[in-house]
Amino acid sequence: MRRAVLATTLALVAAGCAGDDRRAGPVAGAAPTRVATTTTPQPAALGAASKRADPPSTLVESTTTTTTSATTAATSTTTGVTATMTVTTTTTTLPPWPRSITMAFTGDTLPHSPLWRRAARNAADAGRDGHDFGPMLAELAPLLEPVDVAVCHLETPIAPEGEEFTTFPFYGVPAEIADAIADAGYDRCSTASNHTADRGPEGIDRTVEVLGSRGIGQSGMARTPAEIEPQVVDVGGVGVSHLSYTWSYNGLSLPDGEEWRSALIDVDRILADAASARERGAHVVVVSLHWGAERVHGVTSWQRRIAEELTAGGTLDLIVGHHAHVVQPIEQVNGTWVVFGLGNILSNLPTNSSWPAATQDAVVVTVELAVGAGGAVTVGRPVVHPTWVDKDAGWVVRQVDAELARDDLTAGQRGRLERSRARTEAILGDFFPAVESAEPAEPAQPSESTPVAG
Question: Any idea which fold 8-44+102-448 has?
Answer without folding.
Answer: Purple Acid Phosphatase; chain A, domain 2 (3.60.21)
